[in-house]
């Protein structure tokens, strides 16, 4: 057996999470087999509404210990809005993991894949291939503030934004490192220092200070409003885009939307500094998931697009240091989508799922990617 071995917590959740997880695990197995490492999957039924119905809680008492015994968390989608309110299912699982494991980076690659029809494709013949880096723990989403004089004429509501130097610097520095590692070496910072006159100038100030450590990276900043326009008008010009919690949230939905269906977009919630084998710090695992939710409208039909989940697995391998396997997985996804798209364009039956205008199933599309992982070069 290989010396490279990883334990993965598998949490499929609800709805189509249960359908896209099995093909994604088979793709990961195929990559492990081909590139000579081991994956041990630990399957957990909790962090799902099914579990909630039986136990009146989303998580068992020892959830944290169970997850901390793993190298990474592979998460499907949670939610059954017809029977459990979303704030209970999401805050009782995913959002709790992000906070408890201090997953301060949220990454979303925005890459136009073959087979995806997008009105933004092929501008100036250039591909769309950028990545958004969102601050995931503080900023505008800090629960500081409150209401007074409720129900009276003086009713007053205040919520504060919290930028800490630690919080801003670590996400900005991560984005610079990422930009440095990519061929284009460009970083775009989202700001709004013309309107938000205290916190946003501070953000800009930290970006400028940290930029001095990265003279090889080209830096630009845009106010969030015009940046959204640029995402739509010239998506092919971006490389790494960094934003606060709120701005990053907006950009990280807009970015994948610029590259087609929600069914293929992946996301990583990272604590990049946590060390598994350091006895002096607590192990805080990172989490990998598709962007989409549990899709109750198509759940049970076997037609969910598995690419978002498989691509999230690809990001997980990259994070675990299995770069070769990660590159092969990405190439396999591209090859299979390209091939199926060609069949679709010739008017032939193809394995693209219905959200990509094909007539394939979750198992067919996932199975083809699994086979391609075994043979791509
Ligand atoms: P959703 O992402 O589940 O679905 C939105 C639309 O996209 C639906 O029409 C769905 O059929 C389609 N879609 C999504 N994923 C697809 C895929 N892989 N293949 C083909 N079509 C796909 O978002 P929605 O409907 O707003 O939320 C449903 C439930 O999921 C709610 O309970 C919500 O809270 C939860 N949710 C959970 C997330 C998570 O676990 N990270 C993220 C987003 C929503
Ligand atoms: Mg969002």
UniProtKB/TrEMBL annotation:
Coiled-coil annotated spans: none
Domain named Isopropylmalate dehydrogenase-like: residues: 7-369
Known catalytic reactions: (R)-malate + NAD(+) = pyruvate + CO2 + NADH
InterPro entries to which the protein is assigned, alphabetical: ICDH/IPMDH (IPR050501), IsoCit/isopropylmalate_DH_CS (IPR019818), IsoPropMal-DH-like_dom (IPR024084), TTC_DH (IPR011829)
Protein name as it appears in the record: D-malate dehydrogenase (decarboxylating)
A family per Pfam: Iso_dh
Spans traversing the lipid bilayer: none
Highest classification ranks of the organism: Eukaryota, Fungi, Dikarya, Basidiomycota, Agaricomycotina
Entry keyword set: Magnesium, Manganese, Metal-binding, NAD, Oxidoreductase
A GO term, aspect molecular function: NAD binding
Cofactor(s) this protein cannot do without: Mn(2+); Mg(2+)
Record-listed E.C. numbers: 1.1.1.83
Family to which the UniProt record says this protein belongs: Belongs to the isocitrate and isopropylmalate dehydrogenases family.
Organism domain of life: Eukaryota
């Amino acid at each position: 057996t290989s010396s490279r071995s990883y334990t993965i917590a598998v949490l499929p959740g609800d709805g189509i999470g249960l359908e896209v997880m099995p093909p994604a695990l088979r793709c990961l197995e195929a990559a492990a087999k081909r590139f000579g490492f081991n994956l041990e999957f630990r399957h957990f039924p909790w962090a799902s509404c099914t579990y909630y119905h039986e136990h009146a809680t989303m998580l068992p008492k020892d959830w944290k210990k169970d997850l901390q015994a793993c190298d990474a968390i592979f998460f499907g989608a949670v939610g059954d809005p017809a029977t459990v309110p979303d704030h209970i299912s999401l805050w009782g699982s995913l959002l709790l993991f992000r906070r408890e494991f201090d997953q301060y980076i949220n990454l979303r690659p925005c890459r136009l894949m073959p087979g995806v029809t997008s009105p933004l494709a092929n501008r100036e013949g250039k591909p769309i291939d950028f990545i958004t880096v969102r601050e995931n723990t503080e900023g505008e989403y800090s629960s500081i503030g409150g209401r007074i004089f409720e129900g009276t004429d003086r009713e007053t509501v205040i919520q504060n934004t919290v930028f800490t130097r630690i919080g801003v610097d670590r996400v900005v520095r991560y984005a610079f490192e990422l930009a440095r590692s990519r061929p284009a070496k460009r970083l775009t910072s989202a700001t709004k220092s013309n309107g938000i006159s205290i916190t946003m100038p501070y953000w800009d100030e930290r970006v400028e200070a940290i930029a001095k450590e990265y003279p090889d990276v080209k830096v630009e900043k845009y106010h969030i409003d015009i940046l959204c326009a640029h995402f739509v008008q010239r998506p092919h010009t971006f490389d790494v885009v960094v934003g606060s919690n709120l701005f990053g949230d907006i950009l990280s939905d807009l970015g994948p939307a610029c590259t087609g269906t929600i069914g293929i977009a992946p996301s990583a919630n990272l604590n990049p500094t946590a060390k598994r084998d350091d006895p002096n710090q607590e192990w805080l695992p990172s989490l990998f998931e598709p962007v989409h939710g549990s899709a109750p409208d198509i759940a049970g039909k076997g037609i969910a697009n598995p690419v978002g989940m498989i691509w999230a697995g690809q990001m997980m391998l990259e994070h675990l240091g299995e770069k070769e396997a990660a590159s092969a997985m990405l190439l396999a996804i591209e090859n299979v989508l390209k091939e199926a798209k060609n069949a679709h364009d010739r008017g032939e039956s193809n394995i693209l799922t219905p959200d990509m205008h094909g007539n394939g199933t979750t198992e067919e599309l996932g199975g083809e990617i699994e086979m391609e992982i075994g043979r791509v070069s």
